[in-house]
């Protein structure tokens, strides 16, 4: 059974940091492209960051470049999103996505940036 379980979300003040984790099981994690998406209320889901399976090369949305870092640990079947210098506009539900022969989505974790 495939599972993507996100964790690490919560309430943080502007300028603060959070680290999201996505624990995967049920598929060959190391061969999949892993991504983080987010969806704010009333907006479409958007790509935040992506990490390629073989080379671990990364891509970021312009809005998070220099503040967010995606990484993966293939031994732990986990992908991370380190989020620094958080802004109110980063408030959203954050989803983990696995892309390969099949696409899988996690259930999401809420991130709220507010004073």
Describe the structure.
It is built from no helices and 11 strands. By secondary structure, the chain is mostly beta strands. The N and C termini lie far apart (40 Å). The protein is 0% helix and 52% strand. Strands 2, 4, 5, 6, 9, 10 and 11 form a 7-stranded mixed sheet that branches. A 4-stranded antiparallel sheet has the order 1-3-8-7, with no helix packed on it.
Describe the largest sheet: 7 strands, mixed
* Rg, alpha carbons: 13 Å
Ends: how far apart?
40 Å
Tell me the structural class. mainly beta
Count the DSSP helices: 0
General form: globular
How many strands in all?
A: 11
Instruction: Give the SSE string.
Output: EEEEEEEEEEE
* Low-pLDDT windows of residues: none
Question: What do the pLDDT scores average to?
Answer: 96
Tell me the β content: over 45%
**Helix coverage percent:** under 10%
Write the layout of secondary structure elements.
Elements: E1 3-7, E2 10-12, E3 18-25, E4 33-39, E5 46-51, E6 58-60, E7 68-73, E8 78-83, E9 92-99, E10 103-105, E11 109-113
Parallel strand pairs: 2-11
Antiparallel strand pairs: 1-3, 3-8, 4-5, 4-9, 5-6, 7-8, 9-10, 9-11
In brief:
With 115 residues, this protein is mainly beta.
Which descriptors apply to this entry?
115 residues
